[in-house]
Write a structure and sequence with these properties.
The chain is 36% helix and 21% strand. It is α/β, with parallel strands linked by helices. A 7-stranded mixed β-sheet has the order 3-2-1-4-5-7-6, sandwiched between helices.
Length: 228
């Protein structure tokens, strides 16, 4: 079975990397607005990226993952104008979000420079509503209530000062904070916390957020904190 790919974002990535990687691409495909390209033109860009050795598998679609579907379903009920995605990583959630919410302004923060560089290539390639920053959420000096929604998906279990991360998310969100974490112990050495319902409840209540809703899918706990 052929692997499903988000050719819109994949094409943007090739455009963003074309000059740096010296990819031979028709100039018209680089200069036209990304949204105006035909699917055949996007596929031509993707094929050029593959031929140049770019890692196009990064744009495999993950929108059918249960935890991603659950979060997207919640967000489709509130339609945020702006979103901060903390620790976007490989884009497992962020890429389907960009596809499903074409009018939402998106900011991504990540500690790893190569993750930020990937997302900035998308911006350069035509996804202009996406901004990616190398930033530590626990230390970020930005004004309160800067974003409609803050998402922290498969992230909190990695952060040493999880209390400070939760406080920062609550401070930066106008409407909601959405969290997903593993619901049971695993053997990933990078998972330094097991964040149960009780633990998350305590963290968010100490941050001043009392309206919490919990759900879960396939080994993941999903929590929404309402700040409205």
């Amino acid at each position: 079975m052929q692997e499903r790919m988000d050719i819109h974002l994949a094409a943007a990535y090739v455009r963003g990397m074309a000059e740096q990687e010296k990819i031979p691409v028709d100039e018209a495909l680089l200069k036209a607005p990304l949204d105006m390209l035909l699917d055949a033109e996007k596929e031509a860009l993707v094929n050029a990226g593959k031929a140049a050795g770019l890692k196009m598998y990064r744009f495999k679609r993950h929108d059918e993952l249960p935890r991603v579907k659950a979060v997207l379903g919640f967000l489709q009920g509130i339609w945020p104008e702006s979103l901060l995605d903390v620790g976007s990583g490989r884009g497992v959630f962020l890429f389907p979000f960009l596809d499903a919410f074409p009018n939402t302004q998106v900011t991504s923060v990540d500690l790893l420079p190569h993750r930020v560089a990937l997302l900035n290539a998308l911006r350069l390639g035509g996804v202009e509503r996406l901004q990616a920053l190398q930033q530590d959420i626990c230390k970020w000096d930005i004004k309160d209530k800067s974003f409609d929604v803050v998402t922290m998906l498969e992230v909190l279990e990695h952060i040493p000062d999880v209390e400070k991360a939760v406080q920062a998310a609550v401070r930066l969100a106008k409407r909601y904070v959405v969290v997903s974490v593993p619901s049971k112990p695993d053997d990933n050495p990078e998972h330094i916390h097991l964040l149960t319902k009780d633990v998350l409840t305590g963290l968010f209540r100490r941050a001043g957020c009392m309206r919490l809703h919990f759900g879960g899918v396939n080994g993941h706990l999903i929590m929404t904190a309402c700040l409205e």
